[in-house]
Give the backbone structure.
Amino acid sequence: MEAPSIKTEGRRIIRVMFSRRVAILGFIIAVFFMLTAIFGPLIAPYDPIEQNINNILEAPSREHFLGTDDLGRDILSRIIYGARVSLMVGVVAVTISAVVGMSLGLIAGYFNKWVNNIIMRIIDAFMALPSMVLILAIASILGGGLFNVMIVLGIGLIPTYCRLMCAQVLSIKENDYIISAKALGSSDLRIILRHVLPNAFPPLLVLITLQIGTAILMEASLSFLGIGISPPTATWGSMVSVGYNYLLSNPLLSFAPGIAILLVVLAFNLIGDGLRDALDPRLRGTL
Amino acid sequence: MITYIVRRLILSVVVMFIVTVLVFLLIHLIPGDPARCLLGEEATLEQIEELRKELWLDRPLTVQYGHWLTNVFKGDLGKSVLYGQPVKELIMTRLPVTLNLSIFSFIISTVLGIGFGIICAIRRGKTIDTVIALFSNIGIATPIFWLAVIMIYTLGLKLGWLPLQGYTSPLEDPIMNIRQAIMPVFCMVLFPMAVITRQTRSSMLEVVRQDYIRTAWSKGLKERVIVISHAMKNALIPVVTLLGMQFRVLVGGLVLIETVFNIPGMGRLMVTSVFNKDSIAVQGCTLVIAIVVLLVNLAVDISYGWLDPRIRYE
């Protein structure tokens, strides 16, 4: 029996994934926020950092669809611009952590037991710390700001990728086709690139999708605490924090950016779940 | 089983050793002179020199680590630059608060998560399954600090049912302790509960497909007996592995929750210390949190080995 080509397999995964209504919903929400982030400057009605002291804490109106904040800035415009920051941080932080974590996991899983022990025990030590505590500890060294937050989150998310990649490689390298490739004299690099990586990647793809949501949540948490991206940059977390001071007079100030965080994280989680189902061999043929 | 426990203990000691190295390096990774960074720009040269001597910063790194570790074993975690107090004292007053909330949340999220997971699995495809699945998805995606803000607004400010913020020791006023803990615990429980629900549901579904469950049905056993005596024990094995991880998540969440609800725990101490660049306090908090998480993980690993004989013979 011939193995399905990558193209056919890819089509099957997309078909199975989109046969789930929740995955479609997640995809639509994610695309909506991505378009909002890309075309933010075109669709935002106001400059997100332009202050207007004559217009502070205004209720929703025709001019300001979601009202204004404590400095008279348009909330809707800040949410639109906040999408750019959130998605950028999510994607960059996940790229950093995925590249570093997967490389370390690959080395730990593929080479000898000593290398594995050293790398994985260090990863275990990182995993002994709650992500938020680890991220705060790293932030205490690097400080805030957009660039540093991406690095901090990138480092904080490395252990999960490393552990999953290592587990994948350890199971893949026991397969007959790897032993055959070694017997044929293939170099380690060739085996890794041609055989190990393509087979180890699917579960990692699910993790990448889910971690974008996690990174967005963590960036929002850091900004909420005031340790993340500094003002006046519009971030959803800092908007919730500012709104917290005006809960009684203007609850929307806190509620609206929170809904945006919830929706975008939910979207990536739903896509991740859909992908997981499509890639899980145990569910093959049932969907 | 004893070999398994000894192996896990040795592994935990190794990981703990690496954690101490990482935590020790926290101060040394600060760009520039650590003593100047800790004391701030206004510090005099004498003060900087004094701190340098106190922290042994003028010695080789390995000697510094040895000195620091010896002090840690003696219970000396250094002196907070911000509070001017020993970090140990700061932690000792805050750790019980954090443990009180986290243990409470851990128990609730585990019990409810497993309960909801089982209901979803045995009522698969029914309305209740869909509703719980929907809430699980929302629970995982909800920013807990935002949920806390919403709860403060509705239950605290609008309805006036619960106190807005603060913490009272259960020994001082148990009723007030519970009233003040409701909102923070609810916020903290949501994420781990949702994850445990999903894991329990999927492992229960896996188990109920097994032949021995079909045999139990064909023997005419009651649903309750099949679920509790036959399915649950095996289905819970993967859930147990998840518990250690969820405790870690829970403690991480406390950093946010303690800040929003103005609870004087370890999380808030850590945030305040990060804010004020008090790296010695950050170091102490990080170390103590890591020890607590490692101990819980060790307990989870041992119970996992006890539940699943395959693990201890691996």
Summary: The longest helix of chain B spans residues 223-260. Chain B has 13 helices and no strands.
